[in-house]
Specification:
Blueprint lengths: L1 H4 L5 H13 L18 H14 L3 H25 L9 H11 L9 H17 L7 H18 L7 H11 L4 H24 L23 H23 L6 H19 L16 H14 L3 H24 L1
Length: 329
């Protein structure tokens, strides 16, 4: 199966969907609900209430929504990495790795603010990768800030992604002060409209961004099997980083810049849960995207097919064991 995803053929889109269903089959046998936490933003509360009303907050309909959003994230991430030629050859190992990590059940397969925002974060990453070749930079940069503002209204800590955005601007384009100002104008635009609408409706004490920022160690509750899977993924991803650095000289300058942006995104995604007073382990789902790219680099560059197969099926085994655990409990 690793060999199939290593090739760049349209059939892999269908194969990726089948692969995702097989890995996440237990989501239809265990409860999947829309999660609302006290520290969630007002926009996510509205979105979660709407989803609960549309789906009736039933397990099956919520599971379908989760699966659809999961496939969108996997396919979008796979496409943007291939479009920017961050590997010497296009492949579907990124989407495969993304679905594989999620299927280990570490994030309990529920709709959370971080999971919904992750779709927009991947979209933001795509826009940052294209900053070198924009024909109307002011428009694109404003839309980038606007999207980041909307994302922060769904998951407040994503506001910190303004730092990778500014970093991407600094390495992708010559410094122009008005472009940086445009980013902040786009970022503030969603807040302006929400405050204006609530002012006209005479709504007071609007809490757009909850008072949730502060240092806290997230509470982690996962099984020993999931720990084993995470440790294996972490080790393999570190080896993947080594392979990436060994092959970096073969890439275009633009592709190297994309890797720098991805690294910064990944580091920030790992730190964010510690800066959130109401954070849980689920918040680390925003780091799965960059992590999957690093994991896929191991499967792509490793020349030993047997090692690839052993690690692949070992992670599949963890996924199956976790799925059976969820069903039995």
């Amino acid at each position: 199966m690793v060999g199939s995803f290593k090739s760049n053929i349209p059939f892999n889109n269908f194969l990726l969907i089948i692969f995702g269903f097989l890995l996440n089959w237990s989501i239809f046998a265990t409860p999947c609900l829309v999660s609302i936490q006290p520290g969630d933003t007002i926009l996510y509360h509205s979105l979660a209430n709407f989803l609960s009303h549309v789906t009736g907050n039933t397990s099956v309909t919520c599971s379908i929504f989760f699966i659809i959003l999961l496939f969108v994230q996997a396919l979008l991430l796979n496409k943007i990495i291939n479009d920017q030629k961050m590997f010497s050859k296009s492949h579907y190992l990124i989407g495969m790795s993304y679905l594989l990590v999620i299927s280990m059940g570490v994030f309990h397969r529920q709709v959370t603010a971080a999971f919904v925002a992750n779709t927009f974060i991947i979209w933001i990453l795509s826009m940052l990768f294209k900053l070198n070749n924009v024909h109307h930079p002011q428009k694109k940069i404003f839309n980038l800030g606007l999207l980041l503002g909307l994302t922060s209204l769904i998951y407040a800590p994503s506001l910190f992604f303004i730092f990778p955005v500014l970093f991407a601007l600094s390495i992708s384009r010559p410094f122009r002060l008005h472009e940086w100002i445009i980013v902040f104008l786009g970022l503030l635009t969603p807040y302006y409209f929400i405050v204006s609408i609530n002012f006209l409706m005479d709504v007071k004490n609007i809490n757009l961004i909850p008072s949730m920022f502060g240092f806290k160690i997230p509470f982690i509750v996962i099984s020993n099997m999931q720990w084993v899977g995470l440790i294996v993924v972490a080790i393999i991803s570190l080896i993947g980083v080594y392979f990436i650095q060994q092959n970096m000289r073969r890439l275009l300058v633009q592709s190297r810049n994309c890797w720098s942006i991805l690294y910064l995104f990944f580091i920030l995604a790992l730190v964010l849960p510690f800066l959130n007073k109401t954070a849980s382990f689920f918040d680390w789902i925003i780091s799965v995207g960059p992590l999957s790219v690093l994991l896929s680099s191991f499967f792509f560059y490793s020349v030993n097919k047997w090692v690839n197969l052993i690690i692949f099926w070992a992670l599949i085994g963890v996924s199956v064991a976790v799925s059976c655990f969820f069903i039995s409990h």
